[in-house]
């Protein structure tokens, strides 16, 4: 039986996702270049994801070490988060296995409370074991905070990580933050497989 936390996503269909996307896009318009308003094609998404990985690895070599041991690497190169009392975030990503794109996903979150602003960022999730990767594949939308254990790695914590000390299921690296908005985190974000 699913927990009550997931019931808010019941009925969260394509129309709801598109409405959230447009809401976030309007609030975050100052952060976006003109070409970023349209949905990326699969080829554009793969290109952007590969560039984001290259940039992450250059700035955080430990991420590259972990990625070399990971069973899968899920890259969301451009997430837009915006809100004023009610907020949301949205972005598309690509899952790589052995360096090849094998699936596409979107990430969506809705939040409420004291918040104002807009922010653009990206994140990479490294799936360190087959169980975590299977959970992503088999779940009908994965709400982060349930299922496999996730560690969000910041710049300071990355220095202490190594392939021998990494014991969690999934490691997430947030990068390229632009704009101002308090409360950046991944808890409650939902990841769903999409067709591209």
Short summary:
By secondary structure, this protein is an alpha+beta fold.
Describe the protein in words:
The chain is α+β, with helices and mostly antiparallel strands and 196 residues long. The chain has one domain. Helix content is 28%, strand content 39%. It contains five helices and six strands. It has helices at 14-27, 42-59, 61-69, 130-138, 155-158; strands at 72-97, 100-127, 142-143, 150-153, 170-180, 190-194. Strands 1, 2, 3, 4, 5 and 6 form a six-stranded mixed β-sheet that branches. A hairpin with a 2-residue loop joins strand 1 and strand 2. Helix 2 (42-59) crosses helix 3 (61-69). The two termini are 31 Å apart.
Span from first to last CA? 31 Å
- Portion in helices: 25-40%
Number of helices: 5
Count of individual domains: 1
* Coarse shape: globular
Q: Tell me the radius of gyration.
A: 16 Å
Our estimate of the beta-strand percent is 35-45%
Structural class by helix and strand composition: alpha+beta
Oligomer: single chain
Kindly state the mean pLDDT as a whole number?
Answer: 74
Low-confidence stretches: 1-11, 27-38, 156-165
Reported for the largest beta sheet, the result is: 6 strands, mixed
User: What is the strand tally?
Assistant: 6
Secondary-structure element series: HHHEEHEEHEE
